[in-house]
Amino acid sequence: MKTHLERFLEYLEAERNLSEKTVISYRRDLLQFQEFLRTTRLCLKENLSAGEADKSPPALDWSRVDKTAVRAFLGYLHGKGLAKSYMVRKLAAIRSFFKYLNREGLMSLNPASLVSSPKLPKKIPSFLSIPETLSLLQSADPPESLGSQASQGIRVSQSHLLILRDRAILEVLYATGIRVGELARLKVGNVNFEERTVRVQGKGKKERIVLLGESAAEVLKGYLFHRSRPEDPPEPVENLPLFTNYEGGPLTDRSVRRIIKKYVQKSRLHKRITPHSLRHTFATHLLDSGADLRVIQELLGHESLSTTQKYLHVSMGKLMEVYNKAHPKA
Fold first, then answer.
1. Which domain holds residue 51?
2. Engineering a disulfide at 177: which of 145, 159, 204, 282 sits with its beta carbon 3.0 to 4.6 angstroms away?
3. Do 84 and 163 belong together in one domain?
């Protein structure tokens, strides 16, 4: 018989369409909470028989969990020195679980909703200036000979192909603002070169269309041209990963992060830059150029406008410049 926790995880995957990675995160957080309750013997089932009382692990009664138990768990995490961001995430997982139990009629209220989340310091997203962005992109410039080879229909070596791939990754991340996981999941068929758009599967398996700049489209075309080989199997090209590793398999999130780190070091940018920094850079540059915040929200795939509004803090200098020019009393 499946436990309430197992059914909840199935619900997340089947009904809420959460990604496998997100479901694994929920599982890990809730199992830790469950283990804490068992270890501290909080909220165990009442009137257990002698055999059940000695059973390992002891049986929990989720309906007995109250706000005191949830706060005790947060106190335990704080004592272990966990960052507040991790505590907020774990509390969110617990709230979702009890919301599900409440919906299923297994509890009358959600005890975690009565517990306040730890306050997180407001972080201004890291981003690159336009000169820094160009420096990063140029650090992955392929040799000039590759252009003439492509015009003659000559494929490049494997080592040169990886340089083309890396440049295409940098261009696509900056041109579209997509997440690293979204990039790793892209198939060749997701790209429409004629319309210069990319169909992306985001959080909750929701699809959206993002735009591909001319520069990114040309670099990506060049990479795909050089990657194709006459001896390739007849599998439809549309189903192949857009970006592949040395052996032809799909790139992982971690591989993309390593690629970004490599070119950040090569371009001598003295900043901690991640794939997500290019997402922040994309949004900040659009906002600085006068793009509407709701358009940026749509391109980033944010459900809430408040998530996108953090870029207003980044672009405050630009906002002040516009204000000073436009306001008669400025």
1. 4-114
2. 282
3. no
Residue 124 in domain:
no
Q: What is the pLDDT of residues 83-122, one digit of tens each?
A: 999 999 999 999 999 999 999 888 888 999 989 888 877 7
Q: Which of 114, 148, 178 finishes a domain? A: 114
Do 210 and 283 share a domain, yes or no? yes
Question: pLDDT tens-digit profile of 250-260?
Answer: 899 999 999 99
Residue 123 covered by a domain: no
Calpha distance 293→322 (Å, rounded)? 15
Give exposure, 26-60, as e/b (b: 16+ Cβ within 10 Å): bbebbebbbeebbeeebbbeeeeeeeeeeeeeeeb
Helix (H) or strand (E) holding 191: strand 191-192
Q: From the CB of residue 220, how many other CB atoms can be counted at a distance below 10 Å?
A: 25
Query: What pLDDT sits at residue 75?
Result: 93
Instruction: Note whether 27 and 97 are same-domain residues.
Output: yes
- Rounded to two decimals, the pTM is 0.71
Which are the catalytic amino acids? 179, 203, 276, 279, 302, 311
CB 174 within 8 A of CB 277: no
Let me know whether 224 and 141 are in one domain: yes
For Cα atoms 80, 120, 110, give the angle at the middle one, nearest 5 degrees.
80
Q: Are residues 98 and 217 in the same domain?
A: no
